[in-house]
Amino acid sequence: MTSPSSNQPLLSVRDLRITFRQRERSLEAVRGVSFDLHAGRTLAIVGESGSGKSVTSLSLTRLLPPPPACRITGSALFDGRDLFKLSPAELRRVRGRDISYVFQEPATSLNPVFTVGSQIAEAVRLHLPEIKDVRAHVVAALDRVGIVDAANRYGAYPHELSGGMQQRVMIAMALACRPRVLVADEPTTALDVTIQRQILDLLRELRASSGLSVILITHNFGIVHNFADDVAVMYRGEIVEQGPCAEVLRNPQHPYTKALIACIPRLGDKRRRLTTIDHAAIARAGA
Asked: Which of 82, 89, 122, 169 has its CA 20 to 30 Å from the CA of residue 115?
């Protein structure tokens, strides 16, 4: 594969549309979404639950139901290849190897009947057959994400680990095959505040040390400021605002972006209740 130039996006999505069909009904969940991800940068896709963030990320490697249940149109150029036009065999090589995922609930993403080490090893054997000592490679991956006594944790089952440790295992699994893009879909939602900070710090360190590109899916603008370079705000299946993170936070233009930022709790805030999002007012402002 060729490396993109500094000004050429590693991933370029254009006019993405995702339509789900059930019986006689159709729902266009994502409408005309376009964005770029540059090498070594982090793009945060922000919006409430149901805004289309997760299905957008899953569509990149066609992890959504096949037609006619789900129809995907548009283009997603990754390193010059349109992901939506790859054959199933080509796509399997991309998943986990070039683009990997960390999901929000590790307890449901990890198989409870296999050890965490064996689950990571399976991905390594599939995508990196040149690795001779797979166990050592997996132990190193676990150690890299801060798993204490990684050699012994290799043989642990998911239920024997805390939620924070399970999420670290998911990150180790996602990074073990040396991907170029990591999609982190609400990676801290089910964790307490202290563990959330640890996981975000870990992702930041890994990004800096490996030049990883990251797509962070979140509903919380509060975690974006110190983590993302760029931000895209999704509302009802569309990107309503995007740009450099600092600029969008400093001078938001769309009413929905302003409403999301207003929901962020702040020290010293004397409000009795946090601001709620008035969708009717946003619709009137956007009319």
From this structure: 89
Q: What is the DSSP string of 46-92?
A: E--TTSSHHHHHHHTTT-SPPTTTEEEEEEEEETTEEGGG--HHHHH
Judge whether 200 lies within some domain. yes
- The answer to whether 213 and 37 are in contact (CB under 8 A) is yes
Q: Which residues 6+ apart lie within 8 Å of 198 measured at CB?
A: 146, 164
Q: What's the domain count of the chain?
A: 2
pLDDT digits (tens, 9 = 90+) for 187-223: 887 778 888 888 888 888 888 888 899 999 998 887 8
Q: By 3-state DSSP, what share of the chain in percent is helix, strand and coil, each rounded to 5?
A: 35, 25, 40
Predicted confidence at residue 286, as pLDDT, reads 61
250 and 141: one domain? no
Alpha helices in the chain (DSSP H): 53-59, 88-94, 106-109, 116-127, 134-144, 150-153, 163-175, 193-210, 245-250, 255-262, 279-286
Instruction: Compute CA distances 47 → 44, 85, 146, whole Å.
Output: 10, 28, 30
The domain boundary residue, chosen from 178, 195, 215: 178
List Cβ neighbours of 96 (8 Å cut-off, separation of 6 or more): 123, 126, 127, 174, 177, 179
Same domain? For 46 and 140 the reply is no
Which residue segment(s) compose the domain that 143 sits in?
A: 110-178
